[in-house]
Hints:
The complex is a heterodimer of chains A (325) and B (482).
Chain A: E1 5-6, H1 14-33, E2 45-50, H2 56-67, E3 71-76, H3 88-97, E4 102-107, H4 112-119, E5 123-129, H5 135-147, E6 156-160, H6 167-178, E7 182-186, E8 214-217, H7 220-223, E9 229-232, H8 248-255, H9 259-264, E10 270-272, H10 285-289, H11 295-314
Parallel strand pairs in A: 1-5, 2-3, 2-4, 4-5, 6-7, 6-9, 7-8, 9-10
Helix pairs in contact in A: 1-5, 1-11, 2-11, 3-4, 5-6, 5-11
Chain B: E1 6-14, E2 19-28, E3 31-37, E4 49-52, E5 57-60, E6 62-67, H1 80-89, E7 92-97, H2 108-121, E8 125-128, H3 144-149, E9 154-155, H4 165-175, E10 182-185, E11 197-198, H5 201-206, E12 210-211, H6 213-230, E13 234-236, H7 242-257, E14 264-269, H8 270-274, H9 278-283, H10 296-307, E15 313-315, H11 323-326, H12 343-350, E16 355-356, E17 359-360, H13 363-370, H14 372-378, H15 386-389, E18 421-431, E19 450-460, E20 463-467
Parallel strand pairs in B: 1-4, 1-5, 6-7, 7-8, 9-10, 10-13, 11-12, 13-14, 14-15
Antiparallel strand pairs in B: 1-2, 2-3, 5-18, 16-17, 18-19, 19-20
Amino acid sequence: xxxxxxxxxxxxxxxxxxxxxxxxxxxxxxxxxxxxxxxxxxxxxxxxxxxxxxxxxxxxxxxxxxxxxxxxxxxxxxxxxxxxxxxxxxxxxxxxxxxxxxxxxxxxxxxxxxxxxxxxxxxxxxxxxxxxxxxxxxxxxxxxxxxxxxxxxxxxxxxxxxxxxxxxxxxxxxxxxxxxxxxxxxxxxxxxxxxxxxxxxxxxxxxxxxxxxxxxxxxxxxxxxxxxxxxxxxxxxxxxxxxxxxxxxxxxxxxxxxxxxxxxxxxxxxxxxxxxxxxxxxxxxxxxxxxxxxxxxxxxxxxxxxxxxxxxxxxxxxxxxxxxx
Amino acid sequence: xxxxxxxxxxxxxxxxxxxxxxxxxxxxxxxxxxxxxxxxxxxxxxxxxxxxxxxxxxxxxxxxxxxxxxxxxxxxxxxxxxxxxxxxxxxxxxxxxxxxxxxxxxxxxxxxxxxxxxxxxxxxxxxxxxxxxxxxxxxxxxxxxxxxxxxxxxxxxxxxxxxxxxxxxxxxxxxxxxxxxxxxxxxxxxxxxxxxxxxxxxxxxxxxxxxxxxxxxxxxxxxxxxxxxxxxxxxxxxxxxxxxxxxxxxxxxxxxxxxxxxxxxxxxxxxxxxxxxxxxxxxxxxxxxxxxxxxxxxxxxxxxxxxxxxxxxxxxxxxxxxxxxxxxxxxxxxxxxxxxxxxxxxxxxxxxxxxxxxxxxxxxxxxxxxxxxxxxxxxxxxxxxxxxxxxxxxxxxxxxxxxxxxxxxxxxxxxxxxxxxxxxxxxxxxxxxxxxxxxxxxxxxxxxxxxxxxxxxxxxxxxxxxxxxxxxxxxxxxxxxx
Lengths: 325, 482
């Protein structure tokens, strides 16, 4: 196997996707048991190149790398040559010349990862690019949906919150639509991207046969009874500065997942949240404790999913994992 | 409160659209229950208040989309009791008061206060407008949903325009999903509006700081373009420049092209239809208003806008201040003067019958712009297009912001409409005397001016709220403190 890049969720073919999910599931029992060490990536080095803040993504990649025997190295914009004005292109060339096996990169712009990808020949994983893509989050969400039996054609998922500023929405929607699943975007107009119709598959896929639909609604109560899963996004308080939101109280009452709305959500449906969470604002403590809630599990599964991604991007599969045809 | 039945017999009836022949109008339980041919109901055996409308014109009560009641916080200028009493004396049954009070109406409880107070001591229906931005500073959004639930339908930062365009746009976007909401915009680029009067020949001659055309025209362009982009209904209020009117016409053309009739509406005050910047020379601070009185060509253009139907409503911009406040230098004196009690009479004398490029202005036209025109805007009857374009919020999603029921004048006389009526003597000749004003604000440049037409009897929800007729007394407010 050879090195691979995961820049956009659209880079993944369906067999690739299922192999990654199978591999993630294969890692699950080991991650849950804890304390395992493997030799799969022994002798490799993984750079965690984070230009933007992160807790769970960075920590889960680092622990995944260490479990697999790789040497993980943290590089941020602070304390690196970026501070001295080094361009993304030169950073890519530098790391490429050092023969690092894999770079996991997060950047505040949507396109830095594409520039980096042109000059880096080993494994590359996009851990969040501006408002553009967050494919590893989408994989983790796909894993969550698959374990609940919901990752299949015809299922319907709602994403609620600040969609104007959400890379998570963009990656997830593209993945779900390509699998024939329907996405309902739920947000007030000022939190929708202008020209949101551009999110329809016909604007980004070559052939939309078998693709699911993308719709918009302002009203969460109208949407909840008909979905198989709901993903709540963080209400970004920093956005209030631009007048995007009135205040937490109004947002919470209009869009929060609370008691009366929990009753509307079908019994089989699941609740997801990419984190970080404002408890009590977009989601209540009660919803957190509900058996349909997968938010805490998602963090654990994140480690398994990232183990799979590092193996995949470095082109090395663990001993004992059988590649399904 | 239960009011007696009322019969108004023999008056000509303006039904909100046109002036028809004499009829008998029966009011019961606060509603218009019947309109019968004149003489078909015997006033002598009528059980209730029988009013002879012989020689008078019965019109729907007037709706004013733009006034200042100064309550809470500036009650030395006006309060809800005196302000609504003045409105009733002018023939108004519904008024929308501006949110530049102290505190401003940027949170639900302030709107609740105004509505509750008006219900207890007022003489007309009061629809408080809410701020677009917090504290009217233009930097963050006001509590738009909470205001909606408190009955607010008109949103504005009036007194000024909204400072930041991003905040302005996000407010429009948020409001576009609340059924029946409309932004009312005092269009102004504040950097170009630091002066005290219209910037032109007169300001140059007087050596007074000017407020440029561009201030109003750029602000209007921003509002109109914002409405087209976001699909939020707007009303450009108290237009003073012909440029603003042209920009509204552009907006109305675009709304037709894009299938959104009623997206852009506009209003003018009678002040801007009658006076020009020359009035500052004559009347000094009494004529200081914002936007300023402009030039004769603007006045002519606005009159033409009435005649050709571009203008959707007439407003008073009733802006009461104390005599002392208005007696300072132009720079220090506040903008605005009282308008409720003179608007109809001044319009009747100085606007009705004016000839314009689009024909002569008729009494019917003026009455429409004081009744059905503004009432349709306030009642959300101008925006059926909204549902298709932007998903509207259901009451279920708004469960924490359940709108309080609102009832405004319907602007029409028909069986089943609320009994908000004004009996007008359209021929009454009289002169403006601010000492006779019910309003606390005794300022007006029109002192001594001739008027034609006067409200003789105002009825709001079946209650007599103003009377100049012998033997008919005003009925006091529910808590009797008036």
